[in-house]
């Protein structure tokens, strides 16, 4: 298939692009390479996909060829309606995997405009591109953040999600509603994936795994919010990638999933882990204890997440199987190698 992967220089987008390249699909990766975090990490990911840094820095080029014959890259902003429309018109994608977004719960409190531009305007441009050019399937990133103040555990996609506690969460809920509308009105398939706390090699520097590892290695204290009384459904990147790629390939194991055009799934590890246990796994791998600053709860944060992934198991035989310790070990091995620690 010919597939557009947006956010291809990002954490999940990079891994998904690499997997799809290995499977032999024709891939166009798109990213605006913004400075929300160090662009050097994004360029390093692209280099693994065979894209030269100097070429990837350029705007207004049709596309950049990779050392892999089935991969090209374009530097483009989703919020640019004209450029996105032209890209869809010229390329005629079979499937679109929209993983580009302004990420981060806490940053949405500081810079709300970025979330509207990327997550709302950008997503509308993607939907319009799919509608106008007869894309068969749009797979897009949502987030566990949409569950907000929900108390029922584990979270299920049938739960009400009308009480988000951050603009980031609200923007992701909006994406789900927009996708539903387009599937209903224009008859193309959309599948939303609510990601649960993804971690692993090549991860984002603003996430706990990265922040904790860096601070401990530099003998600095780590900030532990809600005084450690947090639980997360930590999901290793390879398990996420496998699920996303199966859905892109439309490899159903159950006829239930083939009857409707609009779909929504949790994609997580199917268990909740205490934050202090997660930190303990990092300490074991590093062989040193963390100095902990016990902090109050942060605005926009939630106490516990846990994904019910039974529908994904039923429809795609999705089986997350990476233990926390194995995932933490793999991340720290990558971190030490990449940063020459």
Automatic annotation (TrEMBL):
UniProt-listed Gene3D superfamilies: NAD(P)-binding Rossmann-like Domain
InterPro entries linked: Epimerase_deHydtase, NAD(P)-bd_dom_sf
Domain NAD-dependent epimerase/dehydratase: 3-257
Superkingdom, taxonomy of origin: Bacteria
The UniProt record lists the keyword Membrane: no
UniProt keywords, alphabetically: NAD
The UniProt record lists the keyword NAD: yes
SUPFAM superfamilies in UniProt: NAD(P)-binding Rossmann-fold domains
Name of the protein described by the UniProt record: NAD-dependent epimerase
Annotated organism of origin: Flagellimonas iocasae
